[in-house]
Amino acid sequence: MPGTIIKHMLSTGIIKLLLGALLFSPAGSMEPVVTAKLTLASSTVVAGKSVRGTATVTIPAGWHAYAPPAPDGFHAFNLKGLNSGFGFKASYPAGKPLEVAGQEGTVMVYEGTVKVPVTITVPSKAKKGRTTLKMQVDYQLCDDSTCLRPDSKTVTATVTVK
């Protein structure tokens, strides 16, 4: 009996209709994927000194993230170092002006690939040897009509402390 019901559903296209609704409806659609990478200018750093690098973040086509500072009620694109005791500084590039419904004037946003220079300072008493540097990328993606919930990604790079 169950086999007969499935055959009937297949022959009438009901299964195809249900699958189509699942795959192409907002509830069944995939959220856009942000990619991020931390690249260091040097693979070694002396304890007490800094290493420069670049955080490369790619925002999917059709979406944007608010450059700092974000309008009230939205979350700005933000980078932060996660290694305790290490200094972390990001030099955010200027965003691109965009007119957004509900906002007065233009707001500054990032679209596509964003390269942010970073400087990470290693504590003078840091343990010598290989260390994994961790950085968190916080963002909120928006398109012309919707903003997703704020999200984050953690990326790493390895450096040898001398």
Topology:
Blueprint lengths: L1 H11 L1 H11 L10 E6 L3 E2 L4 E9 L5 E3 L11 E4 L5 E4 L5 E4 L6 E5 L2 E9 L7 E11 L1 E2 L8 E11 L1
Parallel strand pairs: 2-12
Antiparallel strand pairs: 1-3, 3-9, 4-8, 4-11, 5-10, 6-9, 7-8, 10-12
- Low-confidence residue ranges: 4-28
- The overall average pLDDT, rounded, is 85
N to C succession of SSEs:
HHEEEEEEEEEEEE
Quickly name the level 1 CATH class of the largest domain. Answer: Mainly Beta
Largest sheet: 4 strands, antiparallel
Structural class: mainly beta
CATH superfamily of the largest domain: Thiol:disulfide interchange protein DsbD, N-terminal domain
Number of helices: 2
What global shape is seen? elongated
- Number of E-state strands: 12
Strands ordered across the widest β-sheet:
1-3-9-6
The number of domains: 2
User: What is the first-to-last residue Cα distance?
Assistant: 73 Å
Please state the second-level CATH architecture of the largest domain.
Answer: Sandwich
Q: How big is the Rg?
A: 22 Å
- What's the CATH topology label of the largest domain? Immunoglobulin-like
